[in-house]
Amino acid sequence: MNKPIILHSPTLESVFMVEETIQKYSQECGKYQLWKKLPKKMMYQTFQIILDYLEQSGKIIIDKDGCIIWTFNPERIKKILKEDLIIR
Question: What does 11-78 look like in DSSP terms, one character per residue?
Fold first, then answer.
């Protein structure tokens, strides 16, 4: 499988900006619409790389209609760990 050549790596600040925007507009829009709602401009390719990372890390899912949904819930994870539940 050929991986695309990455011309620009995202900064941590860019990843945080995309995460915050997704949390704000979760379940409301697709990739292009979300990209337009970012508070600062960024290359679309960089935005795609960030989305790929967030999807692979389990923080977002993209439904069959292309809608981006924020799924990461650190408070729920803390609660589960605090209750000593068995995680497989």
Answer: PHHHHHHHHHHHHHHTTT--HHHHHHH-SS---HHHHHHHHHHHHHTTSEEE-TT--EEE---HHHHH
Measured distance CA(33)–CA(3) in Å, rounded: 25
Domains of the chain: 12-82 (1.10.10.10)
Q: How far apart are CA 68 and CA 50, in angstroms?
A: 13
Residue range 18-40: average pLDDT?
A: 95
The pLDDT tens digits of the residues spanning 31-48 come to 999 999 999 999 999 999
